Amino acid sequence: MNVFYKNFILLIVLYFVFVIFDYVENHTFNWTENMIQSLFFVVFFRLFMWFLDGKKAKNLIS
After folding, report:
1. pTM (whole model) above 0.90
2. Which residues span the membrane (predicted)?
């Protein structure tokens, strides 16, 4: 459950960062595009962290 909250907080923070940067650059809010980008980054980050944790565990076993 703790991982869910960390991912959710990361998703919300990234979403607002993307919305703010879009507004600064284009003076528009791209709500759906920013949500898709945020989801992509959170999923990519979690998979990357899972991959690194898996590599570390395999090295400890061998």
Report:
1. no
2. 7-24, 36-52
